[in-house]
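Internal QA ticket QA-208
Title: Verify multi-chain structure generation after dependency bump
Assignee: T.L.

Test input:
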Amino acid sequence: MPALRKIVVRFLPLLLVFGAWEALTAPRLIPEDFIPRFAHVLRALGDLLSSAEFYGHAAASFSRVFIGLTISIIAGVALGIGMAWYRWVKRFCEPLVVLSYPIPKPAIIPVFIIWLGIGDLSKIAVIALGCVVPIIISSYNATLSVDRYLVWSALSKGTSERRLLRKVIFPASLPRIAVAIRVAIAVAFILLVSSEFIAANTGLGYLTFSYGSVGSNDYMFATIFLIVAVGFSADRGYAAVMQRVLAWHEFGEL
Amino acid sequence: MNSAKVEIRDVTKAFRSTGGSQVTALAGISLRIPENEFLTVVGPSGCGKSTLLYIIGGFLKATRGEVLVNGVPVTGPGADRGIVFQKYSLFPWRTVMQNITYGLEEQGVPRAERQEIARSYLRLMRLEGFERAYPRALSGGMQQRVALAQTLACEPDIILMDEPFGALDAQTRKLMQVELLRLWEQRRTTIIFVTHDVEEAIYLGTRVIVMTARPGTVKHDEPIALNIARDKEDYMLNRAFMELKMRIWLNVKEEVERYGEVARS
Amino acid sequence: MAQGKPRVDVDMASGSREPAARRWAALRWLAAGVAHYFSVLLFFGLWEFVARSGWVNPWVFPPVTVSLAEWGRSLATGDIFHPMGLTLLRALGGLTMALGVGITLGLLMGRYRLVEWFFEPLIAIGFPAPKIAFLPLFVLWFGFFNTAKVLIVFTSCIFPLTLYAYHGARSVDRFYLWSALSKGSRGFALLRKVVLPAALPHIFDGFQVALIVSFIVAFVAEMVTGGGGLGFEMIKAAQDAETPRAFAMLFTISLLGYGTIKLAEWLRALLLFWHIEHEAH
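Actual output:
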């Protein structure tokens, strides 16, 4: 079982941290209302994972990220490639992109709350808008930097200008677009949690704060762990899928 | 001699350099390339030999003059002129097999038929067993063999080659040259081959052209009529070959030195 | 990004010409600028038009000119500088701490197997995770004021800084190391004189990420937990139905964002000139 051993050795530090936590909190060296016992956090975790209420909040958060990201990916890739391909799209979009690039994305949360309320719509809009800019920029740059010899090679084998986009430009830009989407996933989770912290009545961010405000620290810890775990798994899941889809290319581990 | 496969008529190419000044890359080149010729073009780097190839390919437009292929002026790239570059000719997201079938796919050849055609070129280029590999897993020499198969599969009238073996190591290059020659002797497709390697030019070509330093024109034009078997290993040691090589090299050397002066001034 | 600049060569060439020609050139320059920023002008124009048309509630959607006037007022009276200072302090305070700890840790991880073994899984899990989720914890531990905010900024910035420094240290060309070892460098000196400078381009990538993260996190923390600063002021303005003031805060924080991005680029060019020269070969 060398594989299992490798995993254990790799994640032993994590167990050590948790072990130290339990060792310090079990004999009440640290007061329970400051840091709850690790065992209690685990118990809360089990409770959460077997309660329907938790899954309701998780579904709310998940659908916000999913819809917001989908919109930003479709719009971002289309606009980025469009900007590189059509002069008028570039002339229209570039100043807007340049202008919105330096806006720290969570700063649009209050504006969207004013416009769209505290429900799903404002969160989806924040995620969609916050993630679209980096995807536009990467798709644009990726499309422009496609090697001209690849384009020529296709043209000399009978590919028409119109088909060029689908046959060469898009696949050649895909690795860089894929990296931008990975960044966008991380940004989406930050925006989700931030906007649910600021104003919401459903979602995992809201759940965390509501446990905190009634002093259920073990449940608050457990919810935070779950958010971290979901964010981490989304990143790794995406990377694993991309490694298969882009098997012809080396998809970076960072 | 009315049936030139490719006719280059007074082609001039000028472009603006990054500094903003006008640069003349080619100055009034005229050439007739008959069918079945294997033309090699040598010259110092930066003499515009690749530019000429790209104009024939239809990727770049001549500032003045025109190129006729089978008597018809070139207006853009087309499947009648296949091209192999030094690098990046292959689509990295396609397997070896998919790369070879690319052109056939674009010309609407049915799936079963294009598989069959591709398989014959796969055999011809000795690539069996690598059908499903992606280009990045192949060596440079293998990649160029796939690129050649990809171009040949389109059955082009003319093959343009832009220093195709320039990035390979010396041994692989030698083997690829032998292979290309074998291929040409079977099919006699018209080839225009750009290189900076004099020996390669003489070994492969039925006619060698030496270009001047920028602005590029034809300096020397010589048919290669060596009556010896080129598949023999001692070919390079043949006296006639060595004399020819010396003559061509002196022509190139003069231009390399002159280009150095041009670059310094 | 390649940005088409309005053409100015016409204007420069006309230095000795008639005033009429110069006016004409200036006009053309202006026209080019309007054409270039057409979409931005259209965007703001549409905003202004819709806001003034009476179709929407001005509380929800104030005209852009009103927001800009409010921004100008807060800049002129100086009442924006106190919250701006607070946000800057929190962002840069947390970032500075994270720089020291993160770079050191990353370099050590790159050089010492034991350090790498212990921290690598923690960093690998923490890097892609949304650290902002820990915010309620920091409030629980450190209250609503500067400490909690500086520490959440620190926590968020430490992951990119450590990870990039670690990758930088690991990708140091072994010939540099061999060369230094053969000249007698050991331990800390090796780390400081060879590993650090060689890893600097990577470290700078991490710094650029962390710089943006620090502002975002400070801002979010202020929005969520209050305690002054631009984020708090923006949320308060939104809650008090002073939407123009909320927009003025948005403009300010965007300007800060722009400033930090430019600052990072400038610093990079300043510190890594040798690296760019190195790459050019």
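Spot checks passed. The longest helix of chain C spans residues 187-225.
Status: verified.
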